[in-house]
Amino acid sequence: MSTTTITLDDDVKRQTVEILDSIGMSLSGYFNLAARQLCITRRVPFDIVAPEPEPTEKTRRALVAAEAKALGLIPDDAPGFTDADELISFLDGQGE
């Protein structure tokens, strides 16, 4: 068996080793398992998931305001509509 060098970000390696230690698997064992599954299935053996994006300041403020309105902490003075025609009438009247 030959030896191969793999470069990992220090923090990623630390987190990976910590998780693998908790299940009794070595980093080398994990890479061998993943590589073997890639060869057997001819596809990446796991879902690739992007981290959830951090909300912007504007989005965070909107979420807090919505929750405060839902809890009755601040009044909800947003107009309500029962159908699209009411909404369109409201929007048409905004330019006046």
Descriptors for this entry?
96 residues, mainly alpha, 2 domains, 4 helices
What does it look like?
With 96 residues, the protein is mainly alpha-helical. The chain folds into 2 domains: 1-49; 57-93, no CATH class. The protein has 4 helices and no strands. It has helices spanning 10-22, 27-41, 57-70, 84-93. The N and C termini lie far apart (79 Å).
Describe the structure in brief.
By secondary structure, the protein is mainly alpha-helical. Helix content is 54%, strand content 0%.
- Secondary-structure-based class equals mainly alpha
The helix fraction, in percent, is: 40-55%
Weakly predicted, low-confidence segments: none
- Helical stretch tally: 4
Gap from first CA to last CA? 79 Å
Number of domains: 2
| SSE ordering | HHHH
**Based on the structure, what is the oligomeric state of the protein chains?**
single chain
Strand percent estimate: under 5%
Number of strands: 0
Rg result:
26 Å
Largest sheet: none
Shape: elongated
Whole-number average pLDDT?
91
Topology:
Elements: H1 10-22, H2 27-41, H3 57-70, H4 84-93
